[in-house]
Amino acid sequence: FADLTSAHNMVTKIASKYVYSVFVSFPNFEERFKAYHQVPLRPLVAVLIDDMVDMKKFRAIAGKLNMAYPVWFLIFTGSNDNESCEVCQNPVGNPFNLKLNSRFLVFCCNATVIEEWWSKDRLITSRKPYGRLEAGRSRIKWLSKKSTIARRAELGSELSVVIVN
What mean pLDDT comes out for the span 77-106? Predict the structure, then answer.
């Protein structure tokens, strides 16, 4: 229950910055995702990963979705096993079908840092600190106010932009 409360508090803090947010469970995830995909604003989708079973379920779902559409916030609680924490701290390959323009935030178990994950080549997951929990986990200090495009440009990656009128 403490993990769920902590996760709820983190999502509430992000939502207070006018980010459309929702908690979803795996059994109705795809159905709910399709409904929220119609919303013009990019929603924040928070997903709790308690163990490897949850991670495998989400990985299967992520393989079918446009991972660049919403803002994702994966919260690895580690409440049921430590293996999921190890995978979170050292992801192998690109387990969640991420792209360069993915907005994918990850909180690994008992860490104090919220990371941003993306993939330049769709083969390897890149990671960078994006926020830090402060004051006994009651506040988040964001480490960047730049847009996703500006943060990716800092990586030396070329982005092609097309504007159609």
Answer: 88
pLDDT band (50, 70, 90) for residue 93: very high
Given a contact cutoff of 8 angstroms between Cβ atoms, the answer to whether 107 and 73 are in contact is yes
Quick one: which of 62, 67, 85 has its CA closest to 75?
85
Q: Provide the pLDDT confidence category of residue 22 given band limits of 50, 70 and 90.
A: low
**Residue 140 and residue 69: Cα distance in Å, rounded?**
24
Show the beta-strand stretches assigned E in the chain: 21-23, 44-49, 71-76, 103-108, 113-118, 126-134, 139-142
- Look at residues 76, 70, 114 and name the one whose alpha carbon lies nearest to residue 95: 76
Query: Which residues lie below 8 Å from residue 141, measured CB to CB, with a gap of 6+?
Result: 131, 132, 133, 134
